[in-house]
From TrEMBL:
EC number in record: 2.3.2.27
Protein name listed in UniProt: RING-type E3 ubiquitin transferase
Chain ranges of the U-box domain: 9-84
Reactions it catalyzes: S-ubiquitinyl-[E2 ubiquitin-conjugating enzyme]-L-cysteine + [acceptor protein]-L-lysine = [E2 ubiquitin-conjugating enzyme]-L-cysteine + N(6)-ubiquitinyl-[acceptor protein]-L-lysine
Protein's pathway: Protein modification; protein ubiquitination
GO terms of molecular function: ubiquitin protein ligase activity
Amino acid sequence: MHQNKVEMWLPEDFRCPISLDVMKDPVIVSSGITFDRHSIESWLDAGNIICPVTRQVLCHTHDLIPNHTLRRHIQQWCVANREMGGIERIPTPKAPLTCAQIGDILVMISAPQSCREGLRMLRAAAMESDGNRKRIASTNAATVVASAFCAHAATATDKSRASSVDVCEDALATLATTGHLDSEARAILLSSPPALASLTSFLVHGNSEGKTNAALMLQELTADRQHREELEAADGMEQGLVELVKEGPSVTGTKAAITTMYYVARDKSIRIKLVKASAIPLLLEILPESDKFICERSLAAVDLLCNCVEGRSAAYGHALTIPVIVKKILRVSNLATEFAVSILWTMCCHSSTGSAMIDALQSGAFQKLLVLIQLGCSEKTRKRATQLLKLFSHYTHEWECIETMDFKEAKRSL
């Protein structure tokens, strides 16, 4: 639509009172005013319960009534003015999923013979619109789908029950699409060893979509600190997470895998398994080209992994550890800086030979930490930065000697 041409003669009744644009899906709220569905849903989702036009309190906010008559008038007006204003006819929107329809689909999912069909219907509805996803999330759909996943995972190990694997795959995709797991759904999955084994199997052996969906569910399950120890039963999870990041089939999968690493690394036994799966070299290698989210989560995970001897040994053994970590100080975000300083502090405080301090000095850590203290940071980070500067002061002479030797070698090679 050409905005400048339309503004002069667009009928006011066709404009949404919130966005002031032509309404594509007009709906009536309890105050009697018509709004575009997307605009009024965003208004309500922000916590507003007052009609922006009449200032009346809105009730039955989940029951937005489609204004079919107005929509047809808008469509007719669009067709009539297509050539004059370059206007295209607005499509007829799909009716949103009702709670009754969701209930019928959940009944299908609960029945073995119609489970897979119900799962696909629920996922398709969730993919249609944000409104459908929110409405599904407001029901017990996650619990029903999680129960179906566990029930079929229990028989999926039997090769003669290949259909159970297919149902598990659809259930996993549905859970990933519909979003957040509630506490009941999380408890159901965590209490089922076959379900955890199935999740790990999809993470390790699934296609790219299956691996991503499994990582998303593991992220949901590990977000609750109280239940992380139950994931020790998910044999092979750590290697699967590392391989997923290495393969990088999707940004979503990579983010979910790294976030899960960060969550589970709080558990000491899982932390060691991640180190053995070569998580530290991988995370360090993706840091230089990563975006803010991945950089922060990767640094957070490395910080936790360096809290064990095995993790520090892996970090010391990688030539890029100190240079990459120092480079991220003051370069990404305050959070990334705090994690980077924490890693540097851990490695330098536990360095028996002092090589970590020399590497840090050569990478410019001394200057960066001085600037950080001057700019300001959290109290914890400031204390660690101050301690590091004191440690570095014992190695400044040695660092200067190394720089002098490097300069002499450079002169000889000219």
